[in-house]
TrEMBL record:
Gene3D superfamilies: Aldolase class I (3.20.20.70). Belongs to the TrpF family. InterPro entries: Aldolase_TIM, PRAI_dom, RibuloseP-bd_barrel, TrpF_fam. This is N-(5'-phosphoribosyl)anthranilate isomerase. The gene is trpF. It comes from the Bacteria. Keywords: Amino-acid biosynthesis, Aromatic amino acid biosynthesis, Isomerase, Tryptophan biosynthesis. Residues 18-206 form the N-(5'phosphoribosyl) anthranilate isomerase (PRAI) domain. SUPFAM superfamilies: Ribulose-phoshate binding barrel. It is an enzyme of class 5 (isomerase).
Amino acid sequence: MNMKLKICGIKHNPTEVASLSPDYMGFIFYDKSPRYVAEVPEDIPLHIQKVGVFVNASVEDVVEKTKGFGLAAIQLHGDESVEYIELLRHSFRESEINVPEIWKVFGIKDQLDIDALRKFESVSDKFLFDTKGASRGGNGVTFDWQLLKNYNLNTPYWLSGGIGLEEMKEVKIFSQTKAAKKLYGIDINSKVEISPGLKDKKKIHELKTCYDDDRTTLVSR
C-alpha cells in the first residue's frame, strides 16, 4: 500500500486544501489550540478522509462530533487511557454510525517506550508519533526517527512532527529502512502554514508533488 498524506490543523482555508486532494484532512477540536475549529465544512470531497483531533475530550463529545461531521478517524492527542478507548469503542458500537478508526498519539523526545505502546495495541487502529514539545502538536520540530528502529509491533503508524518540503528527502530515505516497516503515512501541519490554521497552498502543492512522485517507492512494507 502506498503511503498516505495527511494535512492537519486546517482552520481558515479548508476548501483550498481540499482542492489539492490529500488522503486525509485533520480538524482540531481542542479549544486551547490556535487551530481549533467548532465544525467541519460540508464541502469536503467524499474521497478525502476527515480526521477529528481530540485532547482529553469526553466520550460523548467525541461520539457527537464523529456523528455530526462524518469523521473517518479519531486522533487522540491527550492522556487518554486504554480504558477510555475501550469505552469510546463501546459507545461507537452503541450509536447508529459507522465506527471510525482510532489513532493514539505518542510524543517522542529521546526514547521510544515499546512497553507503553504495547498496552494500546489492542484498542488502536494506528499510532501517530509526534515530537514531544510545549504544545500538543504543531511544534514544527522533528524527532530522531531512528528511535523507531526497535519498533516491532503490528500497529501501523503515522510519522509526524516538523515535516515539510525540506524534509521530504529524509522521509524517502527513512521509508526504505527497517524502522519504517509499519510506516503508514506522514502527517503535515505547521511546516506548510502561513499562520496557525492558515495553510500555504503553494507549499502543500510543492510537497504533495514531491510526495506523489515518490509514491511508488514510499511504500508501507
